[in-house]
Amino acid sequence: MIAVGLIWSACRGRLHSANRWVVALALAAAAAAVGARAAIPPSEVKVDLPHYDLAGRVDTVNERWVYRFAWSGFPVGSATVAAGEVQAEDGRRLAVLVTGRTNRFIDLLWKYRLNARGSIRLDPFAPGDFLSEEIEKGKHKLTKIEFTKDRHVHSLRRKGDKVKEYEFDAPNTYDILSTVFLALNLDYEPGTVLKFDTLTGT
Question: How far apart are the C-alpha atoms of 138 and 166, rounded to whole Å?
């Protein structure tokens, strides 16, 4: 389980919504990859970052984006991001689905598959749930994160036969999806630095 302090630095201008989602997800994934080298148990995490909130009604998108990736001009894989508003028992939520895969040529050397889904509470804004299933070179990894309405979190990670499970209070912590959504919807000026405590669960 990783708790990553993610810093979002506002740049000049605004990106198209699809590009912003991809850039933000890439930043969060990069932070998780870096943090994966040194896992921090929840009991050792000290959160002293600012509390962010979204005032008023939160607008959402209902779109689907498909991306293809290349390395030095050679195609290596693709990813799909879909987001849409749904009505849950506890109010509106933004449901997000992410799938990714290497192509058949890269599969010969390094086969990777990703299926991730989750939701974000909108009334009021808060993290919801996140589930990720990855297959890397035949090895399966499952990550599951659930936040209650009072911000108590249950995190489970299963990699092969190894299972790690945590439960703790996280009043000012977000998962990857809610971190991205929050960063994209806060009002800020160029040069503003936003700091988030992000639970990746990996």
Answer: 26
pLDDT band at 202 (very low <50, low <70, confident <90, very high): low
Domain total in the chain: 1
Residues 15-73 pLDDT 10s: 444 445 554 555 445 444 444 445 566 556 666 666 667 766 666 668 888 889 998 88
pTM equals 0.73
Confidence of residue 88 (pLDDT cuts 50, 70, 90): confident
Residues 6+ apart with CB under 8 A from 124: 53, 54
Q: Which domain holds residue 23?
A: 3-51+60-199
d(CA 90, CA 36): 33
111-117, Cβ contacts within 8 angstroms, sequence gap of 24 or more: 111/135, 111/136, 111/137, 111/138, 112/77, 112/136, 112/137, 114/79
Residue 4 CA to residue 201 CA, distance in Å, equals 10
- Tracing tokens 């508003």 back to the chain, one arrives at 85
Q: What is the DSSP letter of 42?
A: G
Q: At what angle do helices 17-35 and 176-185 cross, to 10 degrees?
A: 140
DSSP letters spanning 167-184: EEE-TT-EEHHHHHHHHH
Q: For residue 160, give the nearest of 184, 134, 198 by alpha carbon.
A: 134
